[in-house]
Amino acid sequence: MPSLDTYGKIGAAQIAFYTPVAIFTIALVFRYAFRRDAGWLFLFIFSAVRIAEGALTLAGELATQPKIDFTIAAYILQTAGLAPLLLSNIGFLGMAGQSTYSEISRVSLIFRITGLLTLAGLGLSVAGGLLGTHVSPDKGDIGLTLRRASTGIFAGVYVVLFLGHSICWTYHFQMRSYRMKLLGGATLALPFLGVRVAYAILAAWSASDIFGTSLSQNPIFAKFNPTNGQWIAYLCSQDGIADNYSPRISSLTTGSLFYLNDDDTPFLYYGTIVRLLCPAMSTVTITILTTTFFPQTQQGADLIASALKATVFMPDFFEPNAAFPAEKYPPKSDKDKTDLQDFFGGVANPAAAIEKLNNFGNVLKSTGAKNIAVYGFCWGGKVTISSGGASTPFDAVALVHPAMLSVADAEKLTVPLGIYISKDEPIKEYEKILDVVSKKAFADKNDHKNYSTMHHGWAAARGNLEDAENKEQYEDVYERLVNFFCKAFGRA
Fold it and tell me: What's the rounded Cα separation, in Å, for the pair 8 and 310?
């Protein structure tokens, strides 16, 4: 029986290592319902490719009558395997950015284009591996060009990925902790992935044919030939810990620890609300109105839910349409201003939203909810205060950096009001509202504060929780909301 050389033993080791990896990754693929952006699907494909390559290498060495097709197929898989490796990193990058940068249309477009370029490199790699062999022996030069072009594309994709990771990290203050850890795992894999890309480039220039019969005259390139080069270079750069095992282990560990398609679990937030004026209440229901669904808003909801032991809802009042794009606010051009006006006049028409909100509150009451409140940001502030008039289903309303402030809305209020403005809201209208509600029967339950150092949006989508002042005022306003609701419900 033929014995295995060093490459054959490496092939056997590949099968032994990647078989459990393939099993584990296919489990993660099913766990995430075959999501295309999950990354683990491509990681499974990569593992399957490595297993097949190892099997072909063994078959080529152990067969009594070896077939050249085994060597060709193993070579093609060895080079083409870089494509799913890159695609898995793109997938992890996209999944880590859900609810943050991945929701930006331009970012999603870049991800798609990068993925298509990777697939183009894969196609060139396969074609280049076939041309020049017995399949098409007279097209060796074309095959060599295609192989080198494919590695050039892979190198370009890697550069885009590297720059992409740098940009994506600028959004980390908006991300949930487990998504930030996934991004960290994907970033940790980048140096090792870079080694793998570098090896592919060197291998493509190591010889003019895939069999290594015409090695490069450059001894550095020649030793990286996957067929007749130095096996130690092949092991360390192609199949060693440096480029494949470490990033795969990192990705698998991250994937096993975090259920990324469950965004209803509480945030792991920087701080907690500690100065409460009332005990936790299990019968409280809070509703949020916002034009965006960014993590800062969700973090605040989790703080309130945790402090009050309340159920907090964040309905989408715009469906089946989309919210106004966050990257276009505040408007930077006349078109953006027009688009914003059209949004508030159409999809976000306050009158229609008020009706939806009141209907939602009545549904909550019909289910047995006893203490129901609502708070809103920006546009949601206008809708919120307008819903607090006669026959309101709510027991309290609160506004945080509200838009379209009007004292006329406050005059119709029949429930306690909490109002918290920034430096960008009209101070005179705010003072008129305070004067009106101070004369209401529920005046002793109202609360207010002017956050004169904060910008519009500091407690929601535009909040920068890495800025010490913003973070402090962010925590302060949510603490005030909690205490306001306690007082409004008569639990203070």
Answer: 62
The CB density around residue 352, as the number of other CB atoms within 10 Å, is 13
Residue tagged 């059209």 (tokens): 342
Q: Is the dihedral of CA 217, 218, 223, 224 positive or negative?
A: negative
Q: Give yes or no for residue 279 having a pLDDT over 70.
A: no
Q: What would the two tokens of residue 201 be?
A: 């480039």
C-alpha span between 189 and 166 (Å, rounded): 14
Residue 385 confidence class, pLDDT cut points 50, 70, 90: very high
A 10 A CB-CB count for 450 gives: 16
Q: Are 99 and 105 in contact (CB under 8 A)?
A: no
The residue behind tokens 């001894």 is 219
Helices (H) and strands (E) in the chain, counts: 18, 6
**C-alpha torsion 344→345→347→348, nearest 10:** 40
Percentage of residues in the chain having pLDDT higher than 90: 27
Q: Please, which pLDDT band fits residue 13 given cuts at 50, 70 and 90?
A: confident
- The DSSP result for 112-124, as a single string, is HHHHHHHHHHHHH
Residue 376: closest CA among 344, 351, 400: 400
Q: Would you say 140 and 208 are in contact if contact means Cβ atoms under 8 Å apart?
A: yes
Helices (H), 266-333: 295-308
289 backbone dihedrals φ, ψ, rounded to 5°: -120, 125
Task: Give, as one character, the DSSP assignment of residue 420.
Answer: E
Nearest to 193 by CA among 43, 37, 85: 85
pLDDT at position 271 over 60: no
**Bridge-partner residues for 371, per DSSP?**
284
Asked if 193 and 247 touch (Cβ cutoff 8 Å), the reply is: yes
